[in-house]
Write the structure tokens for this entry.
Amino acid sequence: MQSAYTVLILLMLVSVSKLVGRVIPLPLPLVQIAAGALLAWPTLGLHVALDPELFLFLFLPPLLFADGWRMPKRDLWRLRGPILTLAVGLVLFTVVGAGYFIHWILPSIPLPVAFALAAVLSPTDAVAVSAITQDRLPTPLMHMLQGEALMNDASGLVTFKFALVAAITGVFSLAEASVTFVLVAVGGLAIGVALSWLVGRLRAWMIARGWDDPATHVVFMLLLPFAAYVLAERLGASGILSAVAAGMMQSWLDLLPRQTSTRLLNRSVWSLLEFSFNGLIFLLLGLQLPDIIKAVTSHEASLWPTLMWRCLDVVAIFAVLLGLRFVWVQSVWRLIGVIRRWRGKEDLVLLPNARSAWLLTVGGVRGAVTLAGVMSVPLLISAGKAFPERDLLIFIAAGVILLSLVSAVIALPLLLRGVARSPDDALRQEAKEVWRRTAEAAIHALEAEELAEPGAPQDAAQAALAAELKARLMAEYRHQLENFNDSAEAQALAEQMDQLERRLRLRALRAQRLELYKLHRHHQVGDDVVRQVLGELDLSEANLGPVK
């Protein structure tokens, strides 16, 4: 029963922290870490014991699956060169450079363990960056950070697992590890894609037979990342890459016909799940901080001097990570520029100026994946033999996460000073074109539509009713086409008419809702009907969008 109370308290804190984050000008992860540390204060004394394997299995697959689902695939492909150099090349560069530095500054940490720590410190968190910058970061830079975060979650954690195996067994062969890495990575991607495709085919088969209950399909989606992870791990492949690939594949299959209600429910459920899991991870970090500090300083005679030296170690490691990232970004960016000019392509995605390089460097915030990975370090190497410096590894990872968040809070607004928050004109123009084409297609379909059954007689009244309905629908679509007139006067008039229509529709919908409440108060309608009608009215109001 105590575990149930703890889970409920943590979920409540996740929700409250979101509200507090709107009042306090700090990133939500920092607020949640502080809330967890406050809850773990001796006077409150909430303690949560974490099983490393359960922590890894519970949190990572759904978060990586959601990242793969959300990532814009076209932008990922367009920026594939910079993203791959950041997500793969920078990870290996960080593992080698930071690994040797960690072993040098802290000789008590064996070299394979130092490599494992550097690997788990490589994944970045683009969601935290988006929250800090408030969408002011230039779109190509934001897409690069999103793509890097998606890919280096997988590359960093797979490298982390290899380093852990080397630390536990004491055996490491670079040639064998390279071949195994490729096999494990390709196998994980193939398993994730295949399983996601099979689930999509199963859902399409169910929908074709009328089994389109949204809750059933959403449960399939909730279980998919865990199934992809477990299946890949059992087959000796990468469960992490399998979960990412399943999410990316499922975003293509999300366009199955006749599942609008399923998509609405699915997006809501995944938004809730992602928000809750991210919040729980940072709350758990705060809850573990007192125990981590106590474990790190337990073998020393004095508390504060030891803690100060450990904090200086964290600052030094973070500074090295920042320096390695800046050197890599500058070097690779200039190399890409040289290659593109050599190939005759002068239209660089971004000019390699100092501000952009520093934005990419400071934007490499560490977050939930780093914490979930380091928490999964096993307690024991073998029976009776503890993993070397496990508590210190968690302390360093927690410190790097905090420092990266704090530095981003301070540096990113300064670097973005003077950068105008401009809308993405290309994206807006593309959306306008899509709406225009779809409206024209709808009008053509209505013009050619025969409402009566082929060969069936149609009386005059039915023909008149069909013509009236078709004219009404085509008038709505022609009104949409008028909105895409590029003249300023036409745009202003169309917007004015659109806002007036929205206000009238909103007034009518609210009157319907008040009447529904009145009928319910007078016991003239049952609860089932109220829920059904109210759901349709809420969906109609949500479709109206913001009304000025």
